[in-house]
Structures are given as C-alpha cells and as structure tokens.
Amino acid sequence: MNKSFQENAEGYCTYSALKCNAHYDMAEMYRRRHRMYGVIVVVVTSLVGTSVFTNLVKTPDPVLLIATGFLSVAAVVLSAVQAFLAFSDLQARYKASASGYGACRRDVELLVMKFPSATGIAGAPETLELEKIKKSLDQLDRESPTLPEALWNAVRKKSDLSIHAP
Fold this sequence. Notes:
Layout: H1 5-57, H2 62-85, H3 87-114, H4 125-143, H5 149-159
Helix pairs in contact: 1-2, 1-3, 1-4, 1-5, 3-4
C-alpha cells in the first residue's frame, strides 16, 4: 500500500483524535464510578455511625444491633472494594493517555500546516517529523490502558470513520 504524506498524516490525526476521545470517555466512566462508590460508602458509614450513637443512648434493640452490624460490615466491604478497584487511578491513567493522543493530533495538525506541500520523501524534514509522531503514537499504544472493544467500536462509529491502528 503506497500512501501519500497527506494520507498518512490524516490517518495519524484521525487515529489520535479517536483514541483521545475513547480514553477521555473511559476516564469519565471511572470518575463516575469512583464518585458513586464514594457516595454509597459515605451514606452507609453515616448510617452506621448514627445507629451506634442511637444504641449508646437507649437500650439496645436486637434488630437494630443486627442491622448496625450488617451496615458496619457493608461499609468496610464497600470501602475495600473501592480501594481495590482503584477507579481514581484508572481515571488518571486514561486521562493521561487521552492527553498524549491529543498532543499527537495537534502535532500532526501543526506538521501539515508547516509543510502543506510535503511529499513524504525519505529523509525530508517533514517525513522525519511524521516518523517521530508515529513513534510517539506507538509508545502511547504500548503504555496506555486497554480500551474495551465495544467502546472503541462505538467511538469509531460515532465519528463515522472506519480507522484502524496506524
């Protein structure tokens, strides 16, 4: 397959934009999950604290004691699950990847603007710069967290582009 400089640049730009969008979508999903689990943990621990305080003030009701014990265990389990799933860490990793893909997209756009009549001849300055961008994309692909296939397909479909990895 023999693509022109412009076709390669456009492909890298599109790929970077799609990857950027997909990684930002994942970061947002993990932000929402982290917040949801956090709210649940706060609500459950607040109920436990209120129940314990109520039990100290009056004669303990066995049903209330059992419910308090259950909520206490649930609060500990939910806190442990939230820490184990590390939603905030995943959010940060996806956001960093999205930022990297966004930077590559802007680099390609600037490159095309700098060299509007680029031919892609080996050793030419524009070709060397495009090769650097390709290496950056390859590095990002290696280091970025994996995107679920369904999300990647949805992002591609939403953009109405059928792009594959460069």
